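Slide 14.
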Amino acid sequence: MAYNIEMIADFKCRVGEGPVWEPKRQMLDWTDIQTGRMFEYDPATGNSRTIYTGEYIGGYSNNKQGGKLMASWSGIGLWREGEEITYIHRGMMRGQNLQFNDVSASPAGQLYAGTYYDGNPPGTLYRFDPDGSIHIVEDNVAISNGIGYSPDLSTVYFIDSPTRKVSAYDLDAKTGNWSNKRTLVSLGDEEGIPDGMTVDGKGFLWVAIWGGSCVIRFDPDGKEERRIHFPATQTSSAMFGGKDLNELYVTTGWNGTSDGPSGFEPTGYDHSAHRGGELYRVKLDIQGKLEFETDFAWPE
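Slide 15: predicted structure.
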């Protein structure tokens, strides 16, 4: 199947990540984690711009009570454009700084956010609730990445990238609790590593493969249905957007260019290939579904 891959923005992102569609404004936001920037793309005009420069932002969500809930490399806080982050949780927890990599809003308005420390020490996947409570979802996580939900909210999916697996859990959508962990997808060394992901309206998973130049669509049983190739090897995350939610936006990153092997490259990886840094879009005959929003109150 042939696809029209559009490169729609090039901010030369070191680690482009976390694309989130904002339905009220019909715009897409994304970050470059390790340069501390956030961007906005307006499909109506074709224009993109930088909307935040500051701390490293691992991920964020649209927030029902205004602004965005940001997960930086020093904590969790609320943010509006033109303002500093108003932190809710900051500092150390369990002897570690709250340095986040990827996040997702839950159906109940909570935030799942995983810490990342370059493998030493291992990170933790937390759930932050609007009432201020904090819960441990998974411990000993190497690189916390994509989180997605089945349309009926019975299942949640989670990626710990170096394991090369997509795990599935039973989800209690009211409490946010996960249980009954099992492996849904397991990739071989020749594939690269699973990174960010989203779930479409039919419950299929779209997983970006870092080092694999592609996004793979898996059915709810974990069987590959298709893959879409991009002109950058380090495809990092995917998100549906557009007025009909049929446009797949894909982030990439140049991190590692001109460096030696990182250990995450697939077998036979071409180290001279273009790694990325751009934002891409492909229009599909498949409809996504809206991501959830957090529901955190701004401090008075």
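Speaker note: The mean pLDDT is 96.
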